[in-house]
Amino acid sequence: MLEQAKKTDQKTEWLCEDIGSWRSSSQVDLIFANASLHWLPDHEPLLNSLIQQLKPEGILAFQVPALYDQPATATIREISALAAWKIYAPQSFPIVHPPRVYHDYLAGKAGSVDLWETVYYHQLSDHTAILDWYRSAGLRPYLEALPKDPAREEFQKQLLERFRILFPRQTNGDILLPFRRLFVVATIR
């Protein structure tokens, strides 16, 4: 994304930094975080820190998967809470709060806070594709906490069985995976 941005706007200094530890030497116009905040804990102090680094009229914009309202995520948590798996619960896992929480974190510090959700329906060929989708992100902490096969294989098998019930095939054979995303744009006074 940054390489493309640099091609279209060469006047702007585009930076790629670790949002959890980044501190600007001077206030900036825009902080944009795409699908990253959910990997970090303690969102309130993090957002406070980011807001403080913005110029007046600066914008903090971020997008995160709406993990609080994802059927597949709920299924992953349910399976991991079963007796066979709860001893392997990850030490940390992605966290996203409902929109009202982010509103409360930002409303007193920003002139305006806009929040919205969008549901993307991913058309997948089979239920294993759902597992593949989650292996690359939200399922990773759970799988890393499990001992190697056969435990990981069995855990994923149980998830797959639940996904088959949760996401029925469409008339053309596709599987529709609804994936909600939360967008937040806060403009500083």
Descriptive report:
This protein has one domain: Vaccinia Virus protein VP39 (Rossmann fold, 3-Layer(aba) Sandwich). It has helices at 2-8, 43-52, 71-80, 99-107, 127-135, 140-145, 151-166; strands at residues 28-34, 54-65, 110-124, 175-188. It starts with a helix and ends with a strand. It is an alpha+beta fold and 189 residues long. A four-stranded mixed β-sheet has the order 1-2-4-3.
Short summary of the structure?
The protein has helices at 2-8, 43-52, 71-80, 99-107, 127-135, 140-145, 151-166, and strands at residues 28-34, 54-65, 110-124, 175-188. Helix 3 (71-80) packs across helix 7 and helix 5 (127-135) crosses helix 7 (151-166).
Low-confidence stretches: none
Q: What is the name of the CATH architecture?
A: 3-Layer(aba) Sandwich
CATH topology name: Rossmann fold
Strand arrangement in the largest pleated sheet: 1-2-4-3
Silhouette: elongated
Classify the beta-strand content into a percent band.
25-35%
Q: Percentage of helical residues?
A: 25-40%
| Multimeric status of the protein | single chain
Determine the N-to-C terminus distance: 28 Å
Determine the structural class based on helices, strands and strand pairing.
Answer: alpha+beta
The number of helical segments is: 7
Mean pLDDT: 91
According to CATH, the homologous superfamily is: Vaccinia Virus protein VP39
Largest sheet: 4 strands, mixed
Order of helices and strands: HEHEHHEHHHE
Strand segment tally: 4
CATH class: Alpha Beta
Rg, please?
A: 19 Å
Count of folded domains? 1
